[in-house]
Amino acid sequence: MQKPQEAQNPCVQNLQNMPDPRTETPQNPPDPRMERAQFLNSRNHYAVHNHIFVSGIGEDWCEGYLDVEEDVTNVYGIPHGGTYFSLADVLAGMVLRANGHNFVTQSASCHYMRSTKEKRMYARAEIMKRGRGTAVIQVRVTDSVGTLLFFATFDYFNAEGRVHIEGDPAEGQPREKSAAEGQPRK
After folding, report:
1. Structural domain span for residue 35
2. The total number of structural domains that make up the chain
3. Residues facing 122 on adjacent strands
4. pLDDT digits 0-9 by tens, 5-30
5. What is the mean pLDDT of residues 101-127?
6. Position 58 in a domain
7. What angle (nearest 5°) sits at the alpha carbon of residue 135, between those of residues 132 and 141?
8. Which range among 16-20, 27-31, 38-42, 87-91 shows the weakest confidence by mean pLDDT?
9. Do 64 and 52 contact (CB within 8 A), yes or no?
10. Which of 15, 61, 103, 178 is most buried (most C-beta within 10 Å)?
């Protein structure tokens, strides 16, 4: 009897299907959000130090991964709980900042479901609400087959004009508005 094939994590599929930025053509121009995410990721020393990388981004979602190295493991040799939180927080912030806005974490509610011995964890952040002052993001962290390891809900505060990123090409530029911004409150 043949063993059923395990479903592959959609974050892994997206990572495998990403275009090679060295071969972009006029028919396949770079996504400005992904360019901004790469800029922000390169300036985020915490993310770089903790092996966190963005692999894809859209208007209301962001995907990425964390490579589990020895320096992010606990005494048991598995990823430290803060590693899951860090991956989720970085991606939640990235999806908000990718269109030029400056948000900072205000609060979070997190749930540790299980650990992993895999050497890479995947995450997907999705905007649940983005307003003028605050935003709510939900993040799921999984292993390579999509097993839920951790999930969190983050509240972010729009710190526009209060914080600045040195060398940010979006600084002083008109901000891209999302579909949710500027809508009357219900």
Report:
1. 30-158
2. 1
3. 65, 142
4. 555 555 555 555 544 443 444 455 66
5. 95
6. yes
7. 155
8. 16-20
9. yes
10. 103
